[in-house]
Amino acid sequence: MSISLIVASPDAHFREMIRESLLNVANATLIAEFPEIAQNLYVRVLHELERHPRAALVLDLAGDTEGALKALERVKHAAPDLYVVASHYQADPELTIACMRAGAQEFLAQPLKRTEFREAMARLERAARPPTAAGARLGRLYTFVGTKGGVGTTTLAVNFAAQAALAKRSTVLLDLDLRANDAALQLGAHPQYTLAEVAENLGRLDRALFEGFVTRDPAGFYLVGPPDNLEQRGFFTDHQFKEFATFLVENYEAVVVDGGVGINEEAVLAAMQISSSVFLVLTQELASIRNAQRYLGFLLRIGLSQDQIKLVVNRYNKRVNSNLASRQQIEQTLNREVFFGLPEAYAAALDAINKGRPMVADPGAGSGELGTALKAFVEKALAANHAAARVA
Predict the structure, then answer these.
(1) Residues forming CATH 3.40.50.300 domain(s) in the chain
(2) Exposed (0-12), middle (13-18) or buried (19+): which is 194, by Cβ within 10 Å?
(3) What pLDDT score does 389 carry?
(4) Mean pLDDT value across the chain
(5) What is d(CA 80, CA 69) in angstroms, rounded to the nearest whole number?
(6) CATH number of 140-390
(7) What are the backbone angles phi and psi of residue 341, rounded to the nearest 5°?
(8) What does the alpha-carbon distance between residue 256 and residue 208 come to, in Å, rounded to a whole number?
(9) pLDDT tens per residue across span 144-166
(10) Fewer beta carbons within 10 Å, N or C terminal of the chain?
């Protein structure tokens, strides 16, 4: 039986040791690396288990033992059958017992010894490991990030949320583009409450209170974004936002994030890390493609997997000229396939924005070339995640 491992450790050296040690283990694959251990680690683990149901987790406790043990308990609560190998520099009986009580099946002392690691992998391979059944069903988080301003990131996020809601999925649109704050504009909405109020009440947040703060669009989804006051920033600490994102995926089937061009914004980074899909929005212009190349390298370095990142070419023109790259050139330059191309329809898109309604929710605009393509894009994205969940 083959071995699939997920490793979670803030220590780059530890992750490197796991990679090197796996080279000496036959039929073993490292499917995901998480450079952070937080309370919402279980969200990322569950998403990986949907693609790889027989995967095991290697969890490094050395950085923050207490926090890592709490994360382990939550992971095991969500996925009781998951095989977990815990690791720490300390190997005293008290810590080992605490790991087993939290749900680990195996303990490895650091620094890792190759012989002990191989023996642990042999025990893992022999262990009866049915496909892991998650104890909690989570929603999906979809984050849109533009490679530069003006590529249509907000328009795609708004229409994605509307189409997901029209497909009968409980949906939230989260506008994290703190400078532009354009999602409300494109929806003709005038929110009474914003992310600031959500952050202030995070400790007592439940679904009823949250829905009292947010704006409900006629298409059926909820919208929450920043206030218009540009001076008001920093609503969430990193820990608070992760707590908020966890609340969202526990309560809603589709959470759509408009990240604007804020790839370095703390909240956008946290959203991307637990996203099922991160849509990197670009055009056929050289500047956009160059930035997409830079963004891809960055996202992979911070721990996103190849499967999470999807290229979406907006305003796609099949008639290539000297100013535009072809789809083939984009794929060759970025060394990955384009997930979807959406046609150029500037006038129709601008008309929808001026009306304050998503194109997919407008019977007239929704049947046009761009409206039809937007619906197909959302259907493909939603279906891709369901297909991943069925992979054995």
Answers:
(1) 140-390
(2) buried
(3) 47
(4) 89
(5) 15
(6) 3.40.50.300
(7) -120, 130
(8) 19
(9) 999 999 999 999 999 999 999 99
(10) C
Residue with tokens 């849109």: 144
284 — phi, psi (to 5°)?
-85, 5
How far, CA to CA in Å, does 302 sit from each of 10, 92, 183?
11, 32, 27
- In this structure, how many other beta carbons lie within 10 angstroms of the beta carbon of residue 2? 9
pLDDT bin (cut points 50, 70, 90) of residue 128 is low
Answer whether 152's CB lies under 8 Å from 314's CB.
Answer: yes
Distance CA 39, CA 67 (A): 8
In Å, how far are 148, 325, 326 from 322, measured between CA atoms?
20, 8, 10
* Tens digit of each residue's pLDDT (9 = 90 or more) over 19-50: 999 988 888 889 888 888 887 888 889 888 88
**pTM recorded for the entire structure:** 0.83
Q: What distances in angstroms separate CA 297 from CA 90, 269, 303, 305, 370, one per listed residue?
A: 35, 14, 10, 11, 30
Residue type, 23: L
The highest-level CATH class for domain 3-126 is: alpha beta
In this prediction, residues 357-376 reach a mean pLDDT of: 87
- Report residue 145: phi and psi, to 5°: -130, 130
Domain(s) of CATH 3.40.50.2300: residues in the chain: 3-126
